[in-house]
């Protein structure tokens, strides 16, 4: 077994089962670390809780909803304005968050009455919103408030409103992943099948496991709409509550993040016979394959091909400009769950990067299986990493860049490793053909930042470099090792899109395709 | 003309101004050298607080979790604390101080944290770490009581209570800064230095603003040492600058060691800084030097350039921590501005009797409201539905969309201010803070005049 023991974790031997280095000729059976087990207390793990997995990751990207957390104020405050899931209704769900503000007296005497008052107050403050989600927290789970009963009571009194309840307290599982599961199942049990949608196309799908980070969902649905497909709902980024109640009427579930949303896709298959098609919006080839597969399913491959051809012709020269300059650069791919396998192979193939480590905070063994299958020999894979292991790995691997979260990114900054935000992105979106170029652009900008060049200099040393010019540019740093042919290429070019690549999509007009005779 | 103090009318919270108590205790924990706190509760209680610290300071701070899972919630989770302490000590050899910070979940299930600490001392520490100095400190901060502010107050007291000892009484003072920024601590230490006064500073967080060094060695952490904390018992007086963020500790020291407590004022603005310096003189007998008179003069000069020409009569809403909000409101009044709405983000029953609030009530000559237990909807609803007109908002970044959506300039001040660069580096206290605040407010109003083409030509000559 190619288990990797960190020096810093020798005192907690069970950690040895959570890291592997993929060895020569080894199969997955040899190289699979333990995953999704209880966290070791005091290890300074990076994991979140099941409440945030349910509410923050999956619930709140739903855009036309009052999102109330039933508990003390902190859970609400802490998960508010810490992600970038935008929406096309002026970001209502980013701007407004609600807490029932449970206090000591409610802990003693119960908080159900308080919850009901809260619901009524919130609908009164936002009379245009008629939909609500309520999230249980540790405190209200432990005192045993019957949130479902209160929601039912209000729905009876106010027939125009609809309320969804998610019982996923913070302690429910080893990480945020427990919350993903709970809200998936709660949604299909409570809400799917309660709205009958208007069908406007011969091709109808749900887009599942997509959270519209910096506009990802809008980029992807743009392709689907150009193919003449009706996207009944998105679970949940930029998704509408009533759209998601109508998921049962789709012909196909297109699944993006299998870690957080495969549960509902699987249930839709079992209960409504809707097939699940796993796709990937990251990377030219995976994305092209995905659009082609969707086209094949509906028998409209030609429409997919037309889009793929157009997009690749537009963006390939720009992606390749970066690929030439990112060749061989070492990456620690340290996201939360599924991006380790969404990104691992295609950043190597399409950007020339070399993945030297993958980790997952809340992924399961299945995610590691896919991730490790897609990386090269010698790659270090870590499950539920902790602060010291991360630092030890950075010291050992000396990567050129790290893709991780905001706070670990600050740790990387101190040891002078450039960081990109793997969860919320730097200047995304990163999905779609253009998005993938934006990602490559951000990686390039991070690695070849002149400031990064300066940060390694010890000015107290006599042999500190002497600058020949009063500045440097990224190009001066990246192009010195390139061949003349690449450097002077007239076909390759840098990213030519704008700061905002998403808003314009909202104004776009789509072709109408003739419906088949029914 | 009246100033009413009232509690928010609704029971719920729409867009909270504060987070909960454990966050305050965690902020105290990162201010202490060789200290890593363990938050006893679900992992989100730590992960998100670390995130918000990193958003505000653009730095990472170390805090651990006992990682409460379902089994612990059902059967009790004291064992998780024992394991967490052991794992932490084994892997972080420099750690000497471990606050055990409770949360709503572990307070409800009734875990006996004090009992666990006794047990750990008798067993784990005695057997496995006999030669190591380790301090385990229980901090009871259930999330359903108070707010991050009271959590801070409780935690400062718990730390002081644990360490303070009377050995050799000294001329030093204790300076409890309250929940402030590195820029504030720097300014306060500067004032003390000019006065030639030595202090135990709780907490030395100037070092939060840490560098990137060529060898990658720098980390951000607080620098208040165990020696400083022990020495709080020897001081000749305690200055708790923020009434709601340190008074409990000051009162403890007064009661236990008869160290006089000087509570407040939050030294925001010229007048409150004057009072602070005069209090220092009174207690220590040291004169206020000419150098500070000169600094004061520079500040007065800067303010004179701005007040009656640009700041007079500007209507301001201020939200956040009570001491900050009151201090800012007092300063605004000195600057001829009209703080028409103050929003205090929790339900502390002492606010209504605060002498500073009483004084405002007795003296303002315009209509003003002070809302306790406030949320952001108290502000937004007044603007959106009740015709409140404002020229300026002062508060932290969580209120940013009110400023954006209603086109009202907003000076980011307090915690957190993640949507503006580097604000933690600048003081709001002292004469330096007075200059910074007034000039930032003025520049924001100038940019707003230009943006809205509202008498932007006024600045052609100035």
TrEMBL record, chain A:
Its cofactor is [8Fe-7S] cluster. Its EC number is 1.18.6.1. InterPro entries: Nase/OxRdtase_comp1, Nase_asu, Nase_comp1_asu, Nase_comp1_CS, Nase_Fe-Fe_asu. It comes from the Bacteria. Residues 49-447 form the Nitrogenase/oxidoreductase component domain. One of its GO terms (molecular function) is ATP binding. CDD domains: Nitrogenase_VFe_alpha (cd01977). Transmembrane segments: none annotated. Keywords: ATP-binding, Iron, Iron-sulfur, Metal-binding, Nitrogen fixation, Nucleotide-binding, Oxidoreductase. Gene3D superfamilies: Nitrogenase molybdenum iron protein domain. It catalyses: N2 + 8 reduced [2Fe-2S]-[ferredoxin] + 16 ATP + 16 H2O = H2 + 8 oxidized [2Fe-2S]-[ferredoxin] + 2 NH4(+) + 16 ADP + 16 phosphate + 6 H(+). Hexamer of two alpha, two beta, and two delta chains. Belongs to the NifD/NifK/NifE/NifN family. This is Nitrogenase protein alpha chain.
Automatic annotation (TrEMBL), chain B:
The lineage of its organism: Bacteria, Pseudomonadati, Pseudomonadota, Gammaproteobacteria, Pseudomonadales. The keyword Transcription does not apply. InterPro entries: ChlB/BchB/BchZ (IPR050152), Nase/OxRdtase_comp1 (IPR000510), Nase_comp1_CS (IPR000318), Nase_Fe-Fe_bsu (IPR014280). Residues 20-445 form the Nitrogenase/oxidoreductase component domain. This is Fe-only nitrogenase FeFe protein subunit AnfK. Keywords: Nitrogen fixation. The keyword Lipid metabolism does not apply. It comes from Azomonas agilis. Belongs to the NifD/NifK/NifE/NifN family. Gene3D superfamilies: Nitrogenase molybdenum iron protein domain, Nitrogenase Molybdenum-iron Protein, subunit B, domain 4. GO terms for molecular function: nitrogenase activity.
């Amino acid at each position: 077994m190619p288990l990797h023991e960190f020096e810093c974790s020798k005192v907690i031997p069970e950690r040895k089962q959570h890291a592997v280095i993929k060895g020569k000729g080894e199969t997955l059976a040899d190289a699979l670390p333990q995953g999704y087990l209880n966290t070791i207390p005091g290890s300074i793990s990076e994991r979140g809780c099941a409440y945030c997995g349910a509410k923050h990751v999956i619930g709140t990207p739903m855009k036309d909803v009052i999102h109330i957390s039933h508990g003390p104020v902190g859970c609400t405050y802490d998960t508010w304005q810490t992600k970038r899931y935008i929406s096309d209704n002026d970001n209502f769900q980013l701007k407004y968050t609600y807490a029932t503000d449970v206090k000591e007296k409610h802990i003693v005497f119960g908080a159900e009455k308080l919850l009901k008052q809260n619901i009524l107050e919130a609908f009164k403050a936002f009379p245009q919103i008629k939909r609500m989600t309520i999230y249980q927290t540790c405190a209200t789970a432990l005192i045993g408030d019957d949130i479902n009963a209160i929601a039912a009571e209000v729905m009876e009194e106010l027939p125009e409103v609809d309320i969804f309840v998610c019982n996923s307290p913070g302690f429910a599982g080893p990480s945020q992943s427990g919350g993903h599961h709970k809200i998936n199942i709660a949604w299909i049990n409570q809400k799917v099948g309660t709205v009958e949608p208007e069908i406007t196309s011969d091709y109808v799908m749900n887009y599942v496991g997509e959270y519209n980070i910096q506009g990802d969902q809008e980029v992807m649905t743009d392709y689907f709409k150009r193919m003449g497909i009706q996207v009944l709902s998105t679970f949940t980024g930029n998704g509408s509550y009533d759209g998601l109640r109508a998921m049962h009427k789709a012909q196909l579930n297109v699944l993006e993040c299998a870690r957080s949303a495969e549960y509902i896709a699987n249930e839709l298959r079992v209960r409504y016979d809707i097939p699940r098609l796993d796709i990937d919006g990251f990377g030219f080839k995976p994305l092209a394959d995905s659009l082609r597969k969707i086209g094949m399913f509906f028998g409209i491959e030609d429409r997919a091909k037309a889009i793929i051809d157009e997009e690749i012709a537009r963006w390939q020269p720009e992606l390749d400009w970066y690929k030439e300059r990112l060749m061989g650069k070492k990456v620690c791919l340290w996201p939360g769950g599924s991006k380790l396998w969404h990104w691992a192979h295609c950043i190597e193939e399409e950007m020339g990067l070399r993945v030297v480590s993958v980790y997952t905070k809340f992924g399961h063994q299945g995610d590691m299986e896919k991730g490790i299958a897609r990386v090269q020999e010698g790659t270090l894979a870590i499950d539920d990493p902790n602060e010291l292991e991360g630092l030890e790995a950075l010291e050992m691997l000396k990567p050129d860049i790290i893709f991780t979260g905001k706070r670990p990114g600050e740790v990387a900054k101190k040891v002078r490793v450039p960081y990109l935000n793997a969860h919320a992105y730097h200047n995304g979106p990163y999905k779609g053909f253009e998005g993938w170029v934006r990602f490559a652009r951000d990686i390039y900008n991070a690695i070849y930042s002149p400031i990064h060049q300066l940060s390694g200099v010890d000015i107290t040393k006599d042999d500190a470099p002497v600058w020949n010019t009063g500045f440097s540019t990224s190009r001066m740093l990246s192009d010195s090792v390139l061949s003349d042919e690449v450097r002077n290429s007239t076909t390759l070019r840098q990213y030519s899109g704008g700061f905002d690549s998403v808003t314009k999509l909202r104004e776009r007009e789509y072709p109408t395709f003739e419906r088949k005779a029914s | 003309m009246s100033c009413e103090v009232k509690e928010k009318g609704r029971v719920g919270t729409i867009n909270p101004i504060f987070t909960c108590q454990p966050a305050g205790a965690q902020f105290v924990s990162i201010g202490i050298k060789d200290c890593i706190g363990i938050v006893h509760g679900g992992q989100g209680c730590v992960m998100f607080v670390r995130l918000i610290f990193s958003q505000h300071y653009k730095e990472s701070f170390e805090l651990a979790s006992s990682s409460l899972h379902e089994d612990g919630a059902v059967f009790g989770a004291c064992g998780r604390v024992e394991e967490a302490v052991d794992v932490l000590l084994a892997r972080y050899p420099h750690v000497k101080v471990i606050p055990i910070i409770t949360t709503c979940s572990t307070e409800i299930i009734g875990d006996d944290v004090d009992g666990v600490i006794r047990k750990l001392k008798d067993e784990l520490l005695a057997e496995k770490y006999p030669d190591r100095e380790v301090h385990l400190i229980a901090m009871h901060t259930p999330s359903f009581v108070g707010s991050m502010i009271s959590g801070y107050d409780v935690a400062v007291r718990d730390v002081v209570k644990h360490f303070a000892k009377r050995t050799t009484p000294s001329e030093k003072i204790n300076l409890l800064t309250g929940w402030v920024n590195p820029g504030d601590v720097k300014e306060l230490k500067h004032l003390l230095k000019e006065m030639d006064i030595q202090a135990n500073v709780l907490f030395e967080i100037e070092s939060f603003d840490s560098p990137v060094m060529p060898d990658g060695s720098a980390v951000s952490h607080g620098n208040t040492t165990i020696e400083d904390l022990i020495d709080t018992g020897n001081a000749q007086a305690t200055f708790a600058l923020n009434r709601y963020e340190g008074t409990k500790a000051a009162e403890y020291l007064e009661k236990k060691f008869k160290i006089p407590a000087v509570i407040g004022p939050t030294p925001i603005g010229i007048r409150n800084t004057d009072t602070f310096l005069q209090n220092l003189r009174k207690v220590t007998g040291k004169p206020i030097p000419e150098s500070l008179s000169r600094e004061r003069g520079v500040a007065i000069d800067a303010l004179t350039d701005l007040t009656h020409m640009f700041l007079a009569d500007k209507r301001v809403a201020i939200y956040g921590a009570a001491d900050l909000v009151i201090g800012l409101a007092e300063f605004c009044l000195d600057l001829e501005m009209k703080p028409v709405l103050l929003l205090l983000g929790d339900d502390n029953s002492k606010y209504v009797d605060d002498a500073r609030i009483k004084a405002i009530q007795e003296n303002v000559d315009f209509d003003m409201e002070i809302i306790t237990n406030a949320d952001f909807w108290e502000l937004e609803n007044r603007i959106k539905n009740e015709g409140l007109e404002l020229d300026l908002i002062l508060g932290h970044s969580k209120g940013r969309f009110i400023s954006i959506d209603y086109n009202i300039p907003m000076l980011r001040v307090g915690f957190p201010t993640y949507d503006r660069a580097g604000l933690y580096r600048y003081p709001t206290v002292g004469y330096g803070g007075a200059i910074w605040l007034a000039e930032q407010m003025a520049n924001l109003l100038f940019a707003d005049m230009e943006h809205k083409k509202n008498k932007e030509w006024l600045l052609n000559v100035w």
